[in-house]
């Protein structure tokens, strides 16, 4: 999960700087990689493999490491629902 969050944040930071694909950890990553990572985390939340607090904690730990464009993020990046698993 930490890798999914880290790669997604770093890709989005690069995308905001105008890069469509970026080398991360020796691999070329793009929007598809970030989307796969996001959906995998969503599935883990939905099927209760991980809990929301863990995801938010790791997100808060990884955001400062991912570059200046990920700092000051909203309280959560994941969509909220009444069930808390969306």
Automatic annotation (TrEMBL):
| Biased composition annotated in UniProt, kind: Polar residues | 67-86
Family annotation (SUPFAM superfamilies): Malate synthase G
GO terms, biological process: glyoxylate cycle
Q: Where is the Malate synthase C-terminal domain?
A: 1-58
| Molecular function, one GO term | malate synthase activity
Region Disordered, residue ranges: 61-86
* One GO CC annotation: cytoplasm
Q: Which residues cross the membrane?
A: none
Q: Which domain of life is it from?
A: Bacteria
Q: What is this protein called?
A: Malate synthase
Species for this entry: Streptomyces noursei
